Amino acid sequence: MASADSASSSDSDSDIVLELDGLVQRLHDPQSGAEFVVEVDRPLQVRQGDFVAIFGPSGCGKTTLLTVLGLLRQPSSPRDIGVFRIRGSRATDSSGCPYVDLKEAWCRRQHSLIEHIRRSHIGFALQSGELLASLTVAENIAVPMHLNGVIGDERRQRVRDLVDAFGLRRQTGLDHYDLSRKRVNKLSGGEYQRVSLARAIAHRPSIVFVDEPTAALNREMARGALEQFRLLEASGSGGAATIMVTHDEELANEFANVIVRMAPVVGRPAGRITDILRRS
Description:
The protein is an alpha/beta fold. It has helices spanning 62-69, 102-107, 111-121, 137-147, 152-165, 189-200, 219-236, 249-255, and strands at 2-3, 16-21, 23-28, 35-40, 44-47, 51-55, 83-87, 99-101, 122-125, 169-172, 175-178, 207-211, 241-246, 258-264, 270-278. Strands 1, 3, 4, 6, 9, 12, 13, 14 and 15 form a nine-stranded mixed β-sheet that branches. The chain has a four-stranded antiparallel β-sheet with strand order 5-2-7-8. It has a two-stranded antiparallel ribbon with strand order 10-11. β14 and β15 form a beta hairpin. It is globular and about 60 Å long. The model is unreliable at 1-11 (pLDDT under 50).
């Protein structure tokens, strides 16, 4: 492996999907007054087709970093960030630039723009709580498409394809297994995780965030679900990128072509990126 920081200068920036350079994210506990800091002091670049694993022990800030990158959490000091930008087919400014300057958007409190980018260009498969309990499996998978104006036969066919691809419906002889009409609050942990992965890519986003995919699945089930997820992303989203947060080093090494290592900072309540490795 070669460090991403030493990547060849001949690499084009045109395939960068997401970039962050410089971050100090402060988390405050209002009850105890304690503070935890997540630091990024080197450039993190995510390119089209990348599968990035953010790897490290519990409590080092992996999920916090994911929520900042996924625009779920505002940077605590956006003006102090060096670079924070995202690329997407519809994320263009008035000059036609394919990138949105997220640092500027947060500084100017352009929340509608940030919401548009998050809705249109980003997908999420989080550990729990993001599926709508009152809806069925099929209805949950359809939600991102509904929010982005995908209607009719196109939406119905996409839902059917994803239900089948993630093993949520199958017919074997007389055995008919179909979860598409089942409410998600009736699912097992593994079934829930597969629905979450299917929904994350339903609207064909530019970048997808996956948080601890082994939390509700054993390793074999997680490997199978992620393999299907990776195949669908590669074939249907035009070079979409995936960022996976995990503490499972084996899973990270198997799926990721970029590994971002995080660790606690010795002597103070903080976590930071210690290394970024990109497979050649």
